[in-house]
Amino acid sequence: MAGKYGEILDQPEGTVYGSRASLSEAGMHRPLMAGICGPASLGAESIVLSGGYEDDQDYGDDSATGSQIGDQTLTRQNMALAVSRSNGSPVRVIRGSGHVSPYSPNTGFRYDGLFSVEDCWQETGRSGHVIWRFRLAKHSNAHGPTSLGNSHTRRMTSTVSRIIRDTEQARTIKKWYDYRCQICGVRIEGAAGPYAESAHIKPLGSPHCGPDTPDNILCLCPNHHVMFDYGGVFVNDDLSIVGTRQRLTVVPNHFISIDYLRYHRHHYMNR
Length: 271
Ligand SMILES: [Zn+2]
Known about the structure:
By secondary structure, the protein is α+β, with helices and mostly antiparallel strands. The protein contains five helices and twelve strands. It has helices at 20-25, 76-87, 168-176, 222-229, 258-268, and strands at 16-17, 36-37, 46-49, 57-58, 64-65, 91-96, 109-124, 130-138, 188-190, 193-195, 197-200, 217-220. The strands form four sheets. Strands 1, 2, 3, 6, 7 and 8 form a six-stranded mixed sheet that branches. It is elongated and about 60 Å long. The two termini are 34 Å apart. Zinc ion is lined by residues 181, 183-184, 186, 220-221, 223-224.
């Protein structure tokens, strides 16, 4: 049976399934055992949060974090979720009653809608093994909760949206650098003036909860911002760029926290 991304015809959000077998028959989540369905090359189609992983966390609609036990590298199923993040494809999230969370159904498995993978990083889990964590956020459903009686499949268009929230702090730091990237020095000239992005070294979102303070903010070009957020570039304690002879450009009044640089290296480097 071929894989399918997005909504499944006649299987609206909120549908409860009695077993993994009925989930599979419905095409909602095809494998009977694996928690993540979908090839690493294309991204994950669906995930089941059903307990069994010591470090699973579930924060309800805002985010669902699935993780697995054992020292992990980004391969196979994990990689599928990382690829879903990169290409912005929607992932069906199914919660099982075996998963200890206030959001889990009392019995069986419930389809809880389409989510997007917003972040992935590594951590040391409770057992001491390295685990990869993923933060998934629920898609806002522009079409309402169900298909409104229309029998057509409502395809969710997948888009990648990187919301760059500029705070007063961020604007100040970009001015310090005259909108030049601290890694490559590029300054983008737009019709509305120069353009740069502010990157938080330790991310703002839960569970990282990095601060919006100058010691946690870099001024980067869009390419280096993406590389920084996606684990493609790292800064050492001495402000050299990992794997290069380059150093981060830093103006005299900009103190950058070594702790936050370490946090970024430890959580986003795929070793
Ligand atoms: Zn750059």
